[in-house]
Write a structure and sequence with these properties.
The protein is mostly helical. The protein has one domain. It has three helices and no strands.
């Protein structure tokens, strides 16, 4: 006996729900992997920059100047021994 249209529709909806769930799981896994890879790149860049800074005083001054000018959060500035900086102005 052939399934009715309603049964086929329900079977397809069920299958679509399973596919949607699998798709969401794989997309989440891809986002986690991308974030891990991005973090790894940042760590490697930082390690190389720190090695160069240790061996080249001019490069050290340049990088520290960039950090001093661009870091805004007191917590981030404190990591490099910088003063917290000016308080943000209230609008």
């Amino acid at each position: 006996m052939r399934p009715s249209n309603e049964q086929r529709i329900e079977a397809l909806r069920s299958r679509r729900a399973q596919i949607d769930a699998e798709l969401a799981r794989l997309q989440a896994k891809a986002r986690v992997l991308a974030r891990k890879e991005d973090t790894r790149r940042k760590i490697l860049i930082g390690a190389i920059m720190m090695q160069e800074m240790a061996s080249r005083p001019d490069f050290d001054r340049y990088v520290r100047s960039l950090l001093f000018d661009r870091l805004e959060k007191p917590r981030d500035r404190a990591l490099f021994g910088f003063s917290p900086g000016p308080e943000p102005t209230q609008p």
